[in-house]
Amino acid sequence: MWKLCQQILDQQYGLPSEAAAESATNFLRAFRARPDDDSFAIDEWPAHLKYICRMVKIKISLFVSNA
Q1: How many domains is the chain partitioned into structurally?
Q2: Can you give the pTM of this predicted structure?
Q3: Domain of life here (predicted)?
Q4: Are the CB atoms for 31 and 51 separated by under 8 Å?
Q5: What's the CA gap between 28 and 32, in Å, rounded?
Q6: Range of 16's domain?
Q7: What is the rounded distance in angstroms from the CA atom of residue 1 to the CA atom of residue 12?
Q8: pLDDT tens digits, the chain, 67 residues: what are they?
Q9: Burial per residue of 21-43, b for 16 or more beta-carbon CB atoms within 10 angstroms, e otherwise
């Protein structure tokens, strides 16, 4: 799954490989953390994950527009 995330960020958004790898790692780390993270109720987790994705998308769009 990590490789797929990285490829999407690299190929579809033009993010350099290193930045795509970091973003994919951060996303998957957050996704996998839920079973161990008691700070969110199970029904709050999808909203938090969407927030993380939105922040990554904003960072990507800022990077692409500044390139």
Answers
A1: 1
A2: 0.52
A3: Eukaryota
A4: no
A5: 6
A6: 2-66
A7: 16
A8: 678 878 887 888 787 888 888 878 887 887 776 666 677 777 777 777 778 777 777 777 777 777 6
A9: bbbbeebeebeeebeeeeeeeee
